[in-house]
Amino acid sequence: MEKQISFTSKILTVIASFAIMLCIGGVYAWSIFASELRTAYGLSSTQTQLVFGLLIAVFPVTMIIAAKIEKKIGTRGIVLLSALFLSAGYLLASLSHGNIFILIIGIGVLAGAGTGFGYLAALTSPVKCFPEKKGMITGIASAGFGLAAVILSSVAETMLNSGINVLQIFRYIALTYLVLILFFTFMISSPYSATGYNGLSLRLLLKAPKFYLLFIGIFMGTFAGLTIVGNLKSIGGVYQIDNHILVIGVSVFAIANFLGRILWGAVSDYTGAHRALTAALFFQGASILLMGILKLNGVIYLTLCASAGFGFGSNFVLFAKESAQFFGLENLSVVYPYVFLGYALAGLTGPSTGGMIFDITGSYLIAIIICAGLCFTGGLIFLLNRAKA
Fold first, then answer.
1. Which domains does the chain have, with CATH numbers?
2. 1-23 per-position pLDDT tens digit
3. Global pTM value
4. Is the CB of residue 185 less than 8 Å from the CB of residue 83?
């Protein structure tokens, strides 16, 4: 059942969703903290990546739980849970003294759950307010998630350079995110009440071929993107590119990811998500392939970081829009968390696969070819599916 909300409330919902994404998207700045945890507390790379990988896995699973809880406590209720879980996780991590098990519980489980609760509300609420602009609005909301790493990594770098310990930074993050998310919680509105879902069941969803197309598609696109971003600095390092340029490349990728979410979403409002998905996957694949076949220098490296990031950002907008388009906007909160499990699987397998291939072969070429091939295959699948339809 739809309920009327004012235009002002709709605009405030978009602003609040973007701001919440800026908080929960800090997860992509993890490499900054991982490096400090290794240096200050002797953790291994495997241990720090285990924390990150678990967060990526818990995050989409929590979205499924959040979709069910939202029917009972409403959108603001799950945003409140996001604030509590996220801040509790970082606060616990700040008290860990570098203990890996406490870090796993704090960052991996609690902060991962907080990210899932917040992401579902911040992604689905604004698009329900502006159903005629699903692509652009989804892009704006999710863009906050992509931009968050740029902001948090910059702030964290400044604090670390001033002598603040990484665990102290976790404490500041906990308190800051708690205050900010609680503030923006009361700006979010949803035009659908708790009884507004038409009852799409998991059994019916699993019978829909379109679900598997979306699940496989987002897995292919994000596997490629996460593998590249997880090894981006090392890929450029093979060509002896200056370390300062390599660091800038990570930021360039993140900023392009942010812009890609907005622009691909806006384009899809005119072309349709299906056509935009085909183009975006081919674009991402071509950008990644060029990283493997060109001899990189500083300029080429930064250019390809930008184009790969721009293509990667499309995955977080277009698959959400296509889910809403096919299964109905009122079911987006129910359907998209299951589609997004493809991203969780990609997060657990992509970056580690790229690193493992490099350890075995001493080169990223095979990993790059695999990633580009997945993107091209995904684009071809959507192209053929469109032609068949």
1. 1-196 (1.20.1250.20), 200-389 (1.20.1250.20)
2. 456 678 888 899 999 999 999 99
3. 0.80
4. yes
